[in-house]
Amino acid sequence: MASKCQQKWDVRNWDEAAYKVRLQADREESTRIVYAARLAPSSDFVATASSNGSVCLYSVASCLASQSMDLNPKTAQLEMEPFLSFSRHDGAAYDLQFYGEDDDAILLSCGDDGKIQGWHWKRIEQGDFSNYSDGRLQKPDFILANPQQKGLRGALAPVPEINAIATDSQGYVFSATGSGHAYCWDLEREKIITTFEGHSDYLHCICSRPSQKQVITGSEDGTVRIWDCRTAETIAILDAHKAAKVTKSPKGKLPWVSCVAIDSSQKWLVCGTGGNCLTLWSLLSFDAVTRICTVSTPQAVTIENSKIMTVGALPYLSCFTYNGDVISRIRIAPSSALSISAYSSGVCIVSGYGGLVDIISEFGSHISTFRCK
Question: In this structure, are residues 144 and 133 in contact, taking their beta carbons and an 8 Å threshold?
Fold first, then answer.
């Protein structure tokens, strides 16, 4: 009788359909991008938003327990199955945020389909699976859908994607869209209450400044706009290329604003641009005070513990002082990173190309690195 090995390679057992399915799955995994990774409130989970539209939860404890056992022999990287997978966006999922704290938190995601999906975290922690089937959430608790813009003769434009979202503590969610508009959503009423119009191109990023009732947007048009949430009027337009008080000037025009972040005092704003640099602004005077040259185009930035932390198109996490001095530069797992989240404990989470998530300690060591499946 033929051995099992011979049977495996017997062309009479060839299943072309199964091979195509397996090949497509392998390609999808190898080209997956994790656009956002956030630590869930009061729990052991990391939430991710990926290019295949999935929103998933991964157990940090399981990652640590499996660190030396479940390595892929081809890539020598840990591959993790999600603890829980939520209903997918129709297209890539670009961002996710947690609104609120502890049991009152809400998990929010946005994506290419122009929708914000929301799940109440309390139900997830308590194991309320009334909307679940086979471990997969059938539908979110609520959906907020972008409006369509009207053109000539009442024609409706395509629904614009939502590239980023931000929250405040007053029940509002802000979205940055591909139409160049930003919206303020009332979570309780599940409707838009304010529209911010003024950018000439689509929006990459957004953050809120609750203490002044302001929202800040960054656009492909190369500018940052600061908006008054009460009047929807522009308070200031910041252009890093025209900043006159910084010492390091870029060689050419800074083509787009890729990321924005404010510090905990809400007095300082940092924005990343396509000219391989960060610009630090004072929100009291709206003046640029520091220009920081980066090793690659910054694609995500945050400020934590008086440190400016950024990742971009090269596999490095760079930390700077407000004066632009380098504090550290750490090699990370993704060859190109698109998300960074930093926490008061010193832990930092980055994610990006290859479906990789890298959890880094305050000392720069890698707590856990895994590939999302």
Answer: no
Burial zone of 210 (CB within 10 Å; 0-12 exposed, 13-18 middle, 19+ buried)? middle
Phi-psi region for residue 284, left (φ > 0), alpha (ψ -120 to 50) or beta?
alpha
φ/ψ of 24, rounded to 5, equals -65, -40
Predicted TM-score of the model (pTM): 0.89
pLDDT one-digit tens code per residue, 224-240:
999 999 999 999 999 98
* 3-state secondary structure at position 19: helix
Distance CA 109, CA 71 (A): 29
Q: What is the pLDDT of residues 320-342, one digit of tens each?
A: 999 999 999 999 999 999 999 99
The SS3 assignment for 172 reads strand
85 exposure class (CB count in 10 Å sphere: 0-12, 13-18, 19+): middle
Average pLDDT of the chain is: 89
CA 347 to chain centre: 17
